[in-house]
UniProtKB/TrEMBL annotation:
GO terms for molecular function: riboflavin synthase activity. Homotrimer. Its EC number is 2.5.1.9. Keywords: Repeat, Riboflavin biosynthesis, Transferase. NCBIfam families: PRK09289.1, PRK13020.1, ribE. CDD domains: Riboflavin_synthase_like (cd00402). The lineage of its organism: Bacteria, Bacillati, Bacillota, Bacilli, Bacillales. Lumazine-binding repeats lie at residues 1-96, 97-195. It comes from Sinobaca qinghaiensis. Residues 1-96, 97-195 form the Lumazine-binding domain. SUPFAM superfamilies: Riboflavin synthase domain-like. InterPro entries: ATP_synth_asu-like_sf, Lumazine-bd, Lumazine-bd_dom, Riboflavin_synthase-like_b-brl. It holds the Pfam family Lum_binding. This is Riboflavin synthase. GO terms for biological process: riboflavin biosynthetic process.
Length: 202
């Protein structure tokens, strides 16, 4: 479980394409402090497992389905990625519940600087729109954000990015039509499932 509060921007140092998986070697600093083999870590919102590490780099394996269905497919060596370690029970919980199970990859439709903020408009698959609520939570490339706009007809959402988030995450590297991972609020999905099961039995 994660919070969507990004700890640092790391760098893809090496990508090794194996027959069964993609091996990513990622250069980082802050999150290396207490890393252990087997740790869960969020890479652009995708929950992955640390398989190896040294003083300034760690390794994760990505299965083909994950590469195909998330924005990880667009990664190249030297790409910047958002990283977050799994939530610790004794830390403040500053974002919202993030599972690291991406629902789909959206697409950057427009980027609009306005005053000291940046508005990003994102096209998302139509089936995700029922989970999008004005002032509700959404996770984009692992970042916990508040929905500033929801357009059901156009199947788009809008988020307003403050300077700190713009500078400390990979959003500043995004361009038009780039893919971006979308995870809907997990509490909404659990609620939907409970109600669906309840009324199906009735």
């Amino acid at each position: 479980m994660f919070t969507g509060i990004i700890e640092e921007k790391a760098t893809i140092a090496q990508m090794n394409d194996h027959e069964t998986h993609m091996e990513l070697k990622i250069k980082a600093e802050k999150i290396m402090q207490d890393m252990k083999e087997g740790d869960s870590i969020s890479i652009n919102g995708v929950c992955l497992t640390v398989t190896d590490f040294d003083e300034n780099m760690f390794q994760v394996d990505v299965m083909p389905e994950t590469m195909k269905s998330t924005s990880l497919q667009a990664l190249q060596e030297n790409s910047r990625v958002n990283v977050e370690r799994a939530m610790a029970a004794n830390n403040r919980f500053g974002g919202h519940f993030v599972s690291g199970h991406v629902d789909a990859a959206g697409r950057i439709a427009s980027i609009e600087p306005l005053a000291n903020a940046v508005y990003i408009h994102i096209e998302v698959p139509e089936q995700l729109m029922p989970y999008m609520m004005l002032k509700g939570s959404v996770t984009l490339d692992g970042i916990s954000l508040t929905l500033f706009g929801v357009d059901d007809a156009a199947s788009t959402i809008t988020v307003s990015i403050i300077p700190h988030t713009w500078e400390e995450t990979n959003l500043s590297t995004k361009q038009l039509n780039d893919p971006i991972n979308v995870e809907c609020d997990v509490l909404m999905k659990y609620t939907e499932r409970l109600l669906e099961t309840k009324y199906k039995k009735a």
